[in-house]
Design a protein that fits this description.
- By secondary structure, this protein is mainly α.
- 84% of the residues lie in helices and 0% in strands.
- It contains six helices and no strands.
- The chain has helices at residues 5-21, 24-48, 55-73, 75-78, 83-103, 111-154.
- It is elongated, with a radius of gyration of 20 Å.
- The two termini are 16 Å apart.
Length: 155
Protein backbone atom coordinates (compact mmCIF):
# COMPACT_ATOMS: atom_id res chain seq x y z
CA UNK A 1 0.00 0.00 0.00
CA UNK A 2 2.87 2.40 0.78
CA UNK A 3 4.07 2.23 -2.84
CA UNK A 4 0.67 2.67 -4.50
CA UNK A 5 1.02 5.30 -7.26
CA UNK A 6 -1.91 7.37 -5.97
CA UNK A 7 -0.50 7.50 -2.45
CA UNK A 8 2.98 8.33 -3.69
CA UNK A 9 1.57 11.05 -5.97
CA UNK A 10 -0.47 12.55 -3.13
CA UNK A 11 2.57 12.65 -0.86
CA UNK A 12 4.64 14.33 -3.57
CA UNK A 13 1.91 16.94 -4.19
CA UNK A 14 1.68 17.75 -0.48
CA UNK A 15 5.46 18.02 -0.16
CA UNK A 16 5.59 20.29 -3.20
CA UNK A 17 2.77 22.44 -1.80
CA UNK A 18 4.62 22.81 1.48
CA UNK A 19 7.79 23.86 -0.34
CA UNK A 20 5.88 26.32 -2.55
CA UNK A 21 4.07 27.84 0.43
CA UNK A 22 7.34 28.54 2.20
CA UNK A 23 9.07 30.31 -0.67
CA UNK A 24 9.93 33.93 -0.05
CA UNK A 25 7.86 34.98 -3.06
CA UNK A 26 4.71 33.24 -1.80
CA UNK A 27 5.18 34.64 1.68
CA UNK A 28 5.74 38.16 0.32
CA UNK A 29 2.61 38.00 -1.84
CA UNK A 30 0.57 36.68 1.07
CA UNK A 31 1.82 39.35 3.47
CA UNK A 32 1.32 42.23 1.03
CA UNK A 33 -2.17 40.95 0.20
CA UNK A 34 -3.07 40.74 3.89
CA UNK A 35 -1.89 44.32 4.46
CA UNK A 36 -3.75 45.49 1.34
CA UNK A 37 -6.99 43.86 2.47
CA UNK A 38 -6.71 45.24 5.98
CA UNK A 39 -5.93 48.70 4.61
CA UNK A 40 -8.95 48.54 2.31
CA UNK A 41 -11.16 47.56 5.24
CA UNK A 42 -9.86 50.45 7.35
CA UNK A 43 -9.45 53.00 4.54
CA UNK A 44 -12.72 54.86 5.13
CA UNK A 45 -11.46 55.81 8.57
CA UNK A 46 -7.84 56.33 7.50
CA UNK A 47 -8.64 58.50 4.49
CA UNK A 48 -11.66 60.10 6.13
CA UNK A 49 -14.65 59.29 3.99
CA UNK A 50 -16.69 57.35 6.53
CA UNK A 51 -19.19 60.09 7.39
CA UNK A 52 -22.09 61.73 5.63
CA UNK A 53 -23.04 60.24 2.28
CA UNK A 54 -20.04 57.93 2.26
CA UNK A 55 -21.40 55.33 4.68
CA UNK A 56 -22.34 52.90 1.88
CA UNK A 57 -18.87 53.02 0.36
CA UNK A 58 -17.33 52.66 3.82
CA UNK A 59 -19.35 49.47 4.40
CA UNK A 60 -18.46 48.17 0.92
CA UNK A 61 -14.75 48.80 1.54
CA UNK A 62 -14.91 47.17 4.98
CA UNK A 63 -16.55 44.00 3.66
CA UNK A 64 -14.45 43.84 0.48
CA UNK A 65 -11.20 44.40 2.38
CA UNK A 66 -11.92 41.69 4.93
CA UNK A 67 -12.99 39.25 2.21
CA UNK A 68 -9.84 39.99 0.21
CA UNK A 69 -7.58 39.54 3.24
CA UNK A 70 -9.23 36.22 4.11
CA UNK A 71 -9.05 34.92 0.54
CA UNK A 72 -5.44 35.84 0.00
CA UNK A 73 -3.97 35.08 3.41
CA UNK A 74 -5.38 31.56 3.70
CA UNK A 75 -4.41 30.35 0.26
CA UNK A 76 -0.72 29.59 0.33
CA UNK A 77 -0.41 27.66 3.55
CA UNK A 78 -3.60 25.72 4.15
CA UNK A 79 -5.26 25.23 0.76
CA UNK A 80 -2.62 25.69 -1.88
CA UNK A 81 -4.40 23.48 -4.42
CA UNK A 82 -7.28 25.98 -4.41
CA UNK A 83 -5.08 29.07 -4.52
CA UNK A 84 -5.58 29.54 -8.23
CA UNK A 85 -9.37 29.88 -7.96
CA UNK A 86 -9.09 31.91 -4.76
CA UNK A 87 -6.72 34.29 -6.52
CA UNK A 88 -9.20 34.78 -9.36
CA UNK A 89 -11.92 35.59 -6.81
CA UNK A 90 -9.51 38.10 -5.26
CA UNK A 91 -8.95 39.59 -8.76
CA UNK A 92 -12.69 40.18 -8.96
CA UNK A 93 -12.60 41.91 -5.56
CA UNK A 94 -9.72 44.11 -6.76
CA UNK A 95 -11.67 45.08 -9.88
CA UNK A 96 -14.76 45.76 -7.75
CA UNK A 97 -12.70 48.02 -5.49
CA UNK A 98 -11.68 50.09 -8.51
CA UNK A 99 -15.22 50.65 -9.78
CA UNK A 100 -17.03 50.80 -6.42
CA UNK A 101 -17.01 54.62 -6.04
CA UNK A 102 -19.06 54.94 -9.22
CA UNK A 103 -21.30 51.90 -8.70
CA UNK A 104 -22.26 52.36 -5.04
CA UNK A 105 -25.45 54.39 -4.71
CA UNK A 106 -24.98 57.99 -3.74
CA UNK A 107 -22.58 60.74 -4.70
CA UNK A 108 -19.35 59.19 -3.47
CA UNK A 109 -17.08 60.01 -6.37
CA UNK A 110 -14.88 62.56 -4.64
CA UNK A 111 -11.15 62.78 -5.22
CA UNK A 112 -10.10 60.97 -2.05
CA UNK A 113 -12.58 58.09 -2.47
CA UNK A 114 -11.65 57.59 -6.12
CA UNK A 115 -7.89 57.83 -5.59
CA UNK A 116 -8.02 55.56 -2.55
CA UNK A 117 -10.13 52.88 -4.22
CA UNK A 118 -8.38 52.97 -7.60
CA UNK A 119 -4.87 52.68 -6.14
CA UNK A 120 -5.87 50.05 -3.57
CA UNK A 121 -7.83 48.13 -6.21
CA UNK A 122 -4.91 48.10 -8.63
CA UNK A 123 -2.55 46.85 -5.91
CA UNK A 124 -5.08 44.18 -4.89
CA UNK A 125 -5.56 43.12 -8.50
CA UNK A 126 -1.81 42.86 -9.16
CA UNK A 127 -1.22 40.84 -5.99
CA UNK A 128 -4.06 38.47 -6.89
CA UNK A 129 -2.64 38.03 -10.40
CA UNK A 130 0.79 37.29 -8.89
CA UNK A 131 -0.80 34.68 -6.61
CA UNK A 132 -2.61 33.15 -9.57
CA UNK A 133 0.63 32.99 -11.57
CA UNK A 134 2.43 31.39 -8.63
CA UNK A 135 -0.32 28.79 -8.27
CA UNK A 136 -0.28 28.07 -12.01
CA UNK A 137 3.52 27.68 -12.03
CA UNK A 138 3.34 25.40 -9.01
CA UNK A 139 0.57 23.36 -10.62
CA UNK A 140 2.63 22.82 -13.77
CA UNK A 141 5.64 21.61 -11.80
CA UNK A 142 3.41 19.41 -9.63
CA UNK A 143 1.77 17.63 -12.57
CA UNK A 144 5.09 16.87 -14.21
CA UNK A 145 6.79 15.62 -11.06
CA UNK A 146 4.03 13.81 -9.21
CA UNK A 147 2.23 11.97 -11.98
CA UNK A 148 5.11 11.53 -14.37
CA UNK A 149 7.41 10.11 -11.70
CA UNK A 150 4.86 8.01 -9.83
CA UNK A 151 3.17 6.36 -12.78
CA UNK A 152 6.26 6.21 -14.91
CA UNK A 153 8.19 4.31 -12.22
CA UNK A 154 5.56 1.59 -11.88
CA UNK A 155 5.37 0.73 -15.58
Amino acid sequence: METHPDLVGTRERHALAERAATTPRAQAIEMMALVTGLYLAASPWIVGFNGGGFSRLAIVNLITGLAYALLMSGGFGRAYDRTHSMAWAACALGAWTIIAPWVVAGNVDTTRTVVNNVITGIVALLLALAASAAARARSGRQDQGAYGGAYGAGR
